[in-house]
Amino acid sequence: MASEKGVMLLDFWVSPFSQRARIALAEKGVEYENKEQSLLDKSELLLKSNPVHKKIPVLIHDGKPVCESLIIVQYIDEVWSDKAPLLPSDPYQRAQARFWADFVDKKVFECGGRLWKQKGEEQEVAKREMTENLEILEAQLGDNMYFGGGFVDVAFVPLTSWFYSYKTCANFSVEAVAPKIVQWAQRCMERESVAKTLSDPKKVYDFVCNLKKILGIE
């Protein structure tokens, strides 16, 4: 097992991608230094650590940077493997967990962004797509308490802080279309690692409003 010494996370408070890394580190009991970043004035450390994408989060372990949130979570799971496994041990189940985490990124996060950015028919299209995506995830969850293994839960749960913004900006109620997903999110919030990490939904909404002004899409 690698030493916990020298673990740093380049972070941004409201980022669901950074929150994935924070939840994984908390589940593993890893002590680390959190360095909050500015997305408008990117630090030399961030640009040096992630010269390709120039984005947070970046996990720096003993001076070595690891980028991209799902890769970071997998790295954390492999390095601190003696506690709270996040990925299943079975190769097929592990592949399935990666598939659904990728689905969350490519379908749910992307569609959620369009819910609060778009208006009119484009927003209506996003609503229909989000309904379909959540229904697919709800079917995958089934009658289980969690998605299994922990990896998909860690990937998905930070986005639940944005559900209030979907409702307020687009009149899209996750609870109305996928009540099991809301119940799952409530169960996740019972874990200390999640409760201490996720942003207050109303603060997320304030951030969204400010971001819309910056982007000129009010």
UniProtKB/TrEMBL annotation:
A single cellular component GO annotation: cytoplasm
Keyword match Transport: no
Coiled coil: none
Domain GST N-terminal: 5-84
Domain GST C-terminal residues, every copy: 90-207
Family annotation (SUPFAM superfamilies): GST C-terminal domain-like (SSF47616), Thioredoxin-like (SSF52833)
PANTHER family: GLUTATHIONE S-TRANSFERASE U19 (PTHR11260:SF781), GLUTATHIONE S-TRANSFERASE, GST, SUPERFAMILY, GST DOMAIN CONTAINING (PTHR11260)
The protein's name: Probable glutathione S-transferase GSTU1
Species this chain originates from: Rhynchospora pubera
